[in-house]
Each structure stands twice: as structure tokens, then as C-alpha cells.
């Protein structure tokens, strides 16, 4: 994980069915910093996170990641981890198998010890051999954190980070967020300011509307 990682967006615009979701979104966030993305429902928070993660293409503008050996889609795939309510794990596979898939997608070897540590951290080690379809919604949310972190990304993207979590899960996620703030950079999309205790920059998708 590069401690000198930077994330920069320039003039991002997204249009769906001729409707402008957002326009001219520009920001830059660097090492050990947190960016907060806020906005009312339908303002495009999840869409913006997908674009930053490389899951969705912008209608205009660009996202660049600095401080890595790779560029473009390679950098997004290998240096970002995304947790979001709309992302689903493979229900027919176990938690461990899902982590193996996450590494295979990136062409990386599966780190068994790291996977076990992650599953312990999110409270799922005792269920690692059970199909994800048997998990509660809160357990699936915890599993998404392990899936997002298994390749040790420098950039962690969290869309509604506390969704479906109980008190224990929220505590585990807060620890993950604080650790990642120290070692990489963090982007959090939420309207609940109790989800994130501090931030260094803010993108308000309600601005100008």
C-alpha cells in the first residue's frame, strides 16, 4: 500500500436518460485524508462512488490515482476497495471463496493468513465456510468489508458505511475506517454525519441545485 497515494477528480459529469445527475465535480484528496460526499437521495452519491471505483464511466471528466506504478483502470482495480449497499457478494459461495474470487479478479495470489485475519476482524471467521446466502443482512455487510480489503487497497470507498450493522459491527467498521485513515485515504458517502467523525474535504452534491 502506497502511503503517498492521491485521488483526483476533474470536472466529473454524469447524465442518465438526458438527465444531468451531477456536473463539474472536482476534488483532490491525499494520504491520511478523508473526503466526505453528501447529498440528498437521488443526488448521485452512489453514482459518484461507482465512477471513482472504475465501475461506471463518467459522461465527462476524469478520475486519476497518483502514487502507484500503474495507471488508469489498473490503478482503480488494484488500489481501490469499495463497500456499498448495491454491491452483492456471490451468495452460493462461502465467505472465504468470495475472498478468493476477489483476488483472482485482480490476478493476485490468495493470502490465506490475511483473509483469516480480516474475517476475524469483521466477526465472520466462525462462519467462513458457510454460504453467504445463509448470512443475515448485517453479516453480508461485514463480509463486504473483507471483500473490499483483501487486496490491501490504498483507497477505501464507503457508500453508506453503517448500513444494516449492529453495534458490534459499527464498532468494527469504525476501527477499519480509523486504521485506513492513517495508512491510506478514505472516501465516505453518507448523509448521516455520525458515520464519520471528521473529514478533510467535502463534496456536496446538493450545491448549485
Topology of helices and strands:
Layout lengths: L5 E11 L2 E11 L4 E5 L6 H9 L6 E7 L5 H8 E4 L11 H11 L6 H10 L15 H13 L5 E5 L7 H17 L1 E5 L11 E4 L5
Parallel strand pairs: 3-7, 3-8, 5-6, 6-7
Antiparallel strand pairs: 1-2, 1-4
Question: What profile does the largest beta sheet have?
Answer: 5 strands, parallel
Q: Could you give me the name of the CATH homologous superfamily?
A: P-loop containing nucleotide triphosphate hydrolases
CATH architecture: 3-Layer(aba) Sandwich
Q: Roughly how much helix do the residues carry, as a percent range? A: 25-40%
Report what the structure shows.
- This protein is α/β, with parallel strands linked by helices and 209 residues long.
- The chain has a single domain (6-204), classed as P-loop containing nucleotide triphosphate hydrolases (Rossmann fold), CATH 3.40.50.300.
- 33% of the residues lie in helices and 25% in strands.
- It has six helices and eight strands, in the order βββαβαβαααβαββ.
- It has helices at residues 45-53, 72-79, 95-105, 112-121, 137-149, 167-183, and strands at residues 6-16, 19-29, 34-38, 60-66, 80-83, 155-159, 185-189, 201-204.
- It has a five-stranded parallel β-sheet, with helices on both faces.
- α6 (167-183) links the parallel β6 (155-159) and β7 (185-189).
- It is globular and about 45 Å long.
Amino acid at each position: 500500500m502506497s502511503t503517498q497515494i492521491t485521488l483526483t477528480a476533474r470536472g466529473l459529469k454524469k447524465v442518465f436518460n438526458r438527465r444531468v445527475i451531477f456536473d463539474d465535480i472536482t476534488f483532490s484528496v491525499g494520504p491520511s485524508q478523508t473526503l466526505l460526499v453528501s447529498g440528498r437521495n437521488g443526488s448521485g452519491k452512489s453514482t459518484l462512488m461507482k465512477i471513482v471505483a472504475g465501475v461506471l464511466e463518467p459522461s465527462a471528466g476524469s478520475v486519476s490515482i497518483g502514487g502507484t506504478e500503474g495507471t488508469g483502470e489498473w490503478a482503480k482495480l488494484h488500489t481501490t476497495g469499495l463497500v456499498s449497499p448495491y454491491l452483492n457478494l456471490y451468495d452460493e459461495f462461502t465467505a472465504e471463496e468470495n475472498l478468493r474470487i476477489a483476488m483472482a479478479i485482480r490476478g493476485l495470489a490468495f493470502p490465506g493468513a490475511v483473509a483469516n485475519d480480516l474475517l476475524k476482524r469483521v466477526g465472520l471467521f466462525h462462519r467462513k465456510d458457510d454460504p453467504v446466502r445463509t448470512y443475515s443482512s448485517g453479516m453480508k455487510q461485514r463480509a463486504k468489508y473483507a471483500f473490499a480489503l483483501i487486496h490491501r487497497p490504498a483507497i477505501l470507498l464507503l457508500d453508506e458505511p453503517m448500513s444494516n450493522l449492529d453495534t458490534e459491527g459499527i464498532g468494527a467498521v469504525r476501527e477499519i475506517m480509523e486504521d485506513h485513515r492513517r495508512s491510506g485515504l478514505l472516501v465516505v458517502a453518507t448523509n448521516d454525519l455520525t458515520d464519520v467523525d471528521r473529514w478533510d474535504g467535502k463534496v456536496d452534491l446538493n450545491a448549485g441545485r
